[in-house]
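Journal club side-thread
Mid-discussion, someone asked how the predicted structure for our own chain would compare to the paper's figures. Pasting it here so we can look after the session.
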Amino acid sequence: MSIAAQPAPSLTPHQWAGLRSELLWVYDHAPASLTVDHTYQQGHWAWYLRSGHARIQRPQGRAMTVRAGTWVFPPRERLRIEFSPDLTLLSVHFLCQWPGGNNVFTRAEPITMPGADCPELLRRAERLERLTRRHFPHVGRGFQQQLEKPTDYPLFLRLQNHFCDWLGTWFSARTQRGARVTEQLRTHDNRALSILRLLNEAPLEHKFPAAQLVRDMELSEVHLTRLFVASFGISPAKYWEQRRMETARRLLEASALSHKEIAFRLGFRSAANFSVWFGRLQNATPGQYRRAQATTGRA
């Protein structure tokens, strides 16, 4: 049965700039574990199976087996995946989210695509992986920490260029196979988009930049909050907390940083304050969350 292509929304470049896109990791080798039981909730994953096969069990429905030469796009839900011992794959993990935190595509779209349907997607992924491996080498499970290494701005721009080339191809391939965009920006107000950029650019190790927003936007805190909520359905303060929590989860999952180091990166005065904040929002301590993620494995 053919899948109807979905038209991509038409937004201004200024509006598209509100879509948060960031490469988290890319690698090309065997997975760290042959069994994965993980909730794929933060960002997007894309796997290209080079050899072997994978058995994927979703919470609803029968298990499916995916063979070599296929792309897999895990939906935003819990999956149990069993990889064959001879499996190797190219894995890309990245963010492509609207300001409210929703992934750009819904979770209900088809999750596999034959590689032959879009050869350019693999070519651009390989180019991205080569550049990343050359400048951000890793060992074993260290692929989850590869982009924590400091670099200079020209190399960052090269990496972004390769990533954006791949991301555009991925977006087109998904919409052509029926993937639906979750939402569109509800604003044409450049002031709201400017607030969003300021929040994304502000370093998380500092407190919420309320004074900077008021100064740079020349608006009262009440006015800019009302404007932001009307545009994105979330307050600036809540969006800031969302950014901090996403970063906290990623660092707990993918880095060897201590809880104290993570706390300072996120602007907390102590690991204890960080633990209380994290536990209130996640119903688990940072240690419990890290141990749970370590036991489920990821690809």
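Post-session note: Residues 271 and 286 are 10 Å apart (CA to CA).
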